[in-house]
Automatic annotation (TrEMBL):
It catalyses: L-histidinol phosphate + H2O = L-histidinol + phosphate. SMART domains: POLIIIAc. This is Histidinol-phosphatase. Its EC number is 3.1.3.15. It is an enzyme of class 3 (hydrolase). GO terms for cellular component: cytoplasm. It comes from Fusobacterium necrophorum DJ-2. Pathway: Amino-acid biosynthesis; L-histidine biosynthesis; L-histidine from 5-phospho-alpha-D-ribose 1-diphosphate: step 8/9. Residues 4-55 form the Polymerase/histidinol phosphatase N-terminal domain.
């Protein structure tokens, strides 16, 4: 059983109203031993509500209070999901280095400075144009920003834009995807397996199994699993699928993080 969820959102995220205390209580009831609270930190993106700008001091203080309160029941990691955007990388570097984060997810939520979910940018492009731009942007961002633990939902661009944008064009984008994975491996960074794709009717996790296997083939070792839950009922959803997949490819291991240092553990 996978007993840790490393991608969970609460009321500190602009797209969640989930009470943090209730969320933690639910995780304990599920039998989880370890969780990372990873609320959104976005900055400098067009079309994005101000509620996505994380109040770092209050956020960190609140997580630390819950860490102490529940220390005998569950391991709570201080995490954050950074919406990478190279023009404002100094903003994220300053905040990540100021506070004692255990775990940082680096995600690509925007294209050409516009948030994918809150703009019509995809409607201006073909499926392949959007995907090529997304992967190229992701590569640029991880080459610019290094203060992270794993890349989040590496190929989730297919979630947006409707049916015609579904399905990753692996062949057309493989060179760029390989460049992304190679950079991660060479710099000791990981990837997450994000199960939210099953909730978005894609019937898959992010990224595709082929991408996970390529990361491992290139020498990568750091994999986390996250539900990307924004309500407590989604915590740890579809984790059995991930466990089965990892066992089937003979890599039954997941990473945990403390003070941004990875520890690889058998499932």
């Amino acid at each position: 059983m996978i007993a840790k969820d490393y991608h969970i959102h609460s009321e500190f995220s602009g797209d969640s109203s989930q009470n943090l205390g209730e969320l933690i209580e639910h995780c304990i009831q599920l039998g989880l031993k370890e969780i990372a609270i990873t609320d959104h930190a976005e900055y400098g993106i067009q079309n994005l509500p101000e509620s996505f700008i994380l109040p770092f001091p209050k956020y960190v203080e609140t997580i630390q209070e819950y860490q102490e309160k529940y220390s005998k029941q569950i391991q709570i990691r201080l995490g954050v999901e950074v919406g990478m955007y190279s023009p404002v990388v100094s903003y994220f570097e300053k905040n990540i280095r100021t506070y004692p984060f255990d775990f940082v997810i680096a995600s690509n939520h925007s294209l050409e400075g516009q948030d994918i979910a809150f703009s019509d940018i995809l409607q201006e492009k073909t499926k392949q144009e959007a995907q090529a731009l997304y992967f190229e942007s992701l590569l640029e961002n991880i080459q610019t920003f290094s203060d992270f633990s794993v890349v989040g939902h590496l190929d989730f661009i297919t979630r947006y834009g409707g049916a015609k944008f579904r399905g990753v064009n692996l062949k057309e984008n493989w060179d760029c995807i390989q460049s992304i994975l190679t950079h991660l491996v060479q710099n000791g960074k990981g990837i997450e397996i994000n199960t939210s794709g099953f909730r978005y009717r894609e019937e898959r996790f992010y990224p595709l199994p082929e991408i996970v296997k390529e990361y491992l083939r290139l020498g990568g070792e750091i994999i986390t699993v996250g539900s990307d839950a924004h309500i407590k009922g989604h915590v740890a959803m579809d984790f059995k699928r991930v466990e089965d997949f990892l066992r089937n490819i003979d890599y039954p291991y997941l990473a945990s993080f403390e003070e941004q240092k990875a520890r690889i553990e058998k499932i």
